Amino acid sequence: MGILYLAALLVSLTGMVVLDRRFRLFFFDAPRRAAIVLVTGVLFFVVWDLCGIGLGIFFRGETAFMTGLQVAPELPVEELFFLTLLCYLTMNVFRGAQLLLERRRAA
To answer: Which residue ranges run through the membrane (predicted)?
Structure first.
């Protein structure tokens, strides 16, 4: 049961990849630019989390659904996958909205 949250994040990330590939939204449209944007976004939020942890604002909650592995004090490994999902989802939604608006304007 300790990997349930991580498994859910991996399934969700897989869904993002499938949508990206099907509609050529992010990595399947411009892989180099997508990698730069995704890494930048994840790093930004990791720094944000570390600052929050350092200030005592953020802390790791105890639950049976998480692995218990930590990247840093109060920073569980699942957080890295969550931040990756968050950034990937945001870029897929952003690019998908752009494509829909372009299609609407063309019609």
So the answer is: 6-23, 35-60
